[in-house]
Amino acid sequence: MTIQLELPTERFRAYGPRQIDSIASRFGLSDEMRETIRRISLVLPFRVNEYVLTDLIDWDRIPDDPIFQLTFPQHGMLTAADDRELAELAADPANALRLKAAVRDIRGRLNPHPSGQMDLNVPSRGGRPMPGIQHKYRETVLYFPGQGQTCHAYCTYCFRWAQFVGDPELRFAAADSAQLVDYLGEHPEVSDVLVTGGDPMIMSTARLRAHLEPLLRVPTVRTIRIGTKSPAYWPQRFVTDPDADDVLRLFEQVVDGGRQLAVMAHFSHPRELDSDRTRTALRRIRGTGAVIYCQAPLIAHVNDDAATWAQLWRAELAQGAVPYYLFVERDTGPHNYFKVPLARAVAIFAEAYRSLPGLARTVRGPVMSATPGKVVVDGVETTADGRHFRLRMLQARSPALVGRPFRARFSDDAGWLDELELAADTPRDLAEAIRGE
Ligand code: SF4
């Protein structure tokens, strides 16, 4: 049932690199900060909106404020050498072509498509790859609607940052769901479609409806998931936008059609839930019968302590949402800036998890969404043969590997699966999948 509200519409206004000067003067950024933002945003995408600027960021705490770190390019995201080269080239308009080449070169070195997504997961029909579709796990297909490939604001750590920098080679997008529907007809094993981006909720309700309704005619699709950060970055989407009520009716239509609608909400910090608008948005979404699952990566400078996560998961639970995943930041973009080593990640997760009430212990982590599948670090153990991480395949490209435990030699600074040395007793099929053999 849609909860009726009488609140004024707020106009969505997004700001990008062209508005850096006006943001700097409105919020008192130093010249140095302004130039840093300008330089880094030549390489990495930058986008905020009025709500993020005025309601989420605590300007008295910049540059350390977690939401400022979450949305604004920062000193240290590029190597000193790359940063210097950009500064030198950008200083003289005659260098425009060299600057463009340098930007392209730096982006290429930032591992724009981690976990083999461009090659490994794109299905094909009639020998031709299907744009905007990924099929990694047997029962789940990812769908990237073309008009949903942007967001209400950009996270500086986004592992899909390459989608937003305007390079068509680095972009996934499907014009409509016709090809997907054909593919689903040939793959009845697919029960879940994750509509993702970007952020599908950036689309108008009419557009979103055009993408979703055809999926409802595929009987084998039982769950539609929508990956979105809109309840954090623009909760007005569900509250006061002109078509906010329409989108809730669309959600109801999915649920009334006998499908599960899972809103996979991305919350990075408890401050994002400390907002009346967000709480109202979540209440209205839940009122449609959709279930809200929450997930986010563990990120240095944003949320890398146990108290923050415990507070976040409790706040999610208080809103009737399900804490679901704590991810490890992927090896892409400014990874060195945001990286939290696995050893620290597992300690942070364990400390936060221990402090939770049972109903919030639905959360799993730290999880790496790696090439062979989703790998959770269950803990650290010390036995006669040394100190090891205990790991488990939560999800796998090969179903035979799902749920299987394995170990890897403990390391203080490893941050990703491919930096780990597998234990000698790792079963051969697991070892081969993990090594990509
Ligand atoms: S909302 Fe999601 S897709 Fe958009 S920038 Fe943030 S992490 Fe990336």
From TrEMBL:
Domain of life per record: Bacteria
Keywords, ordered alphabetically: 4Fe-4S, Iron, Iron-sulfur, Metal-binding
Keyword Metal-binding: yes
Protein name: Lysine 2,3-aminomutase
Organism: Nocardia iowensis
Taxonomic classification: Bacteria, Bacillati, Actinomycetota, Actinomycetes, Mycobacteriales
